[in-house]
Every structure is written in C-alpha cells, then in structure tokens.
Specification:
Elements lengths: L4 E6 L3 H16 L3 E6 L3 H4 L16 H8 L5 E5 L11 E6 L7 E5 L3 H8 L28 H6 L4 H4 L6 E4 L2 H10 L4 E4 L4 H10 L4 E5 H6 L7 E3 L12 E6 L3 H8 L4 H16 L8 E8 L2 E9 L6 E9 L6 H24 L2
Parallel strand pairs: 1-2, 1-3, 6-7, 6-8
Antiparallel strand pairs: 3-10, 4-10, 5-8, 5-9, 11-12, 12-13
Amino acid sequence: MDRKVLRIGTRESQLAVWQATLVKDLLAENGYDSELVYIKSDGDIDLKTPLYEMGVQGIFTRSLDIALLNNSINIAVHSMKDVPTQLPNGIVQAAVLKRASYKDLLVYKGTQQEMETLLDVREISTTIEDSPMKPANSPLTTHNSRLTTHNSQLTTHHSQLTTHNSPVFATSSIRRKAQWLHRYPHHTLENLRGNVNTRLRKVAESNWNGAIFAAAGLERIGLRPEKSIELDWMLPAPAQGAIMVVCKTHDEFALKACSHFNHPETALCTKIEKDFLRELMGGCSTPISALAQIENNEMVFEGNIFSIDGGQKAEVFKKASLANADNLGKRAAMEVLQNGGQSIADNIHHATK
C-alpha cells in the first residue's frame, strides 16, 4: 500500500518556501512524506496598494485557506502574524513552531555615524554577528554566502539624504509606521510592498534613509544586511517570528503528523498575543502590538495600541503565573481599552470605514 503524501500549501516567495520546506523537513524527520504545492495570494499579486487599504485581514492566507477547504492541499504554512485572529470554519491550528526573533529590524543607508545622528542614538550594531540569531542554513539560501551586493547598493543615493530636511523611511506596516512616528514625529514614512527580496532592492534603488523589516524574515533566508539594527524599543506584531501550520478540522492524519513539532511555549505566547489583538478588534491594518514571554516561570506581557499617526498611545504591562496565563491577553486588552485605548480604537474604526 502506498504511503500517504501530505501536500503542503505555500506562497511562492523565498521566505514562504523556506518556511514550508522547514515543515517538510520536520515531517520527514518524523516519518511522513510530503510535497510542496505553490499558491499565489492576493497580497502577492497586488504589490502597489498599501496593505491597510486592501482589507488586509487574511490577505496572505486566504488563497491557501481556499485550497485547503477544496482539498487541493492537506496543510498550509503561514507566517503566524499574517493569520487572522479567527480561522475560517473547517480549519484549525495544527502546530506552532518554535519562535525565531520577534524583533523589527532597520536596514539603513549611509554610515553608522550618520544614522546615529538621524536616530539620536549612541551606538548602532552593524554586523550580523551581533544578532542573537544567525542566518539559517538551507538549500534555498544559495546566495546566503555574501550580502555585500545589498550592502553596497544601500549607499547608492545616500549623499542626497544627509541634507534632507525630513529623514525618510519605508514600511508596509501601519503598526511600524505609528510607532516610528510616535518616536520620530518629524520623519516621513513611505509605503514599501513586495517580498523580502523585492523590498531590499527597492530600498537600495530609492532615496530613502532606510526601511523596516521583520528580523526573522531576513535572517531565515540569509539576507540580513550588515547595515542593520534591531529596534529594541519597537513592540512587534502579535505572533511575529512564529510559523503556524493549519489543516482541516477533522484531518486526524495531518493533525497527528504536525503534533510532533508543535512548540507548546510558543503556542501559548502567540495565543495570548492574538487574544489581545482579537479583543481590541484589530487586524494587520491596525497599529496594535503585543509580546508575551515566559520569564522565571511567569508569563510577562506587553501590549499597546497607537493612533494611525502615532500621536496617541495606550499601553499595558502585565505578569501572571503560567497556571493563570491562558486569558492574560484578554485581560490586558480590557485594561488597555479602559485606559485610553477605546477612544483610539474607535477613531481608527471610523477612519478606516
């Protein structure tokens, strides 16, 4: 009798394929055969419209969900931060992989000294060696050995930037934009769309001072430039840095196969972060951030919501024992709403209707 082959649905970007290949390798380690099935998402087709104008809930996951429900694939692999807080009927979470870096990363142009001046900081780490996570080894990262091409391109137009009245940075994320403008209200933020490779090229060819990326995305495929700095002050998107695998609700074979590499600690932390997002009625188009971490057998949670222009902010910091951590995201969200978050959320809702 032939062995069952699990069909893994993935987007076609290098990062998405890296993530799906990781799941394929994990399945193989546990005795399961699988193959990749490539599917385009709406977010990959339209690379010009800002995400917050696209009705972005599920923009990168919808096509894979449809393929799953149509039995074209058995499981789908997502960057968990892209997954809506409510999964479609008939689809369930099968596994959450151990989280990589949750941090946001600034890829910048010019010299270290020039960027220190623009950001009013004393020191910028410019080498990959200073990152807590080294670029992953993968057959998909054949150009991983040298990042000098990107690094040399990043200096192309910088002579024009040092005299610019308003420093210009780019991002596709309304969350990153709001946090950046809160810290640097005199800066200008431009829209940046496309996969990781496309966005790096756009930065190199632009007159921007730099752009903001997810650290995990660049590091996983070995494309983190030397001229980059982790933004320790920027709170991440809920579930940033985590990979989620989903399957159909009653697919016991897929559920069992994926259970072998589910990481319970990451699953709990990301659940709390997503609960916070859900209670605030937010999605990828809302400037909501959350981070749950286990420290000394306690769950430590930070969360916030900003106005779109970064001018207003409501935040929360909470701790709970692991035994009482399951509803921590919901409790934190209620606290934020009671302390200024409700008016911010209402204003965002009216502005985006």
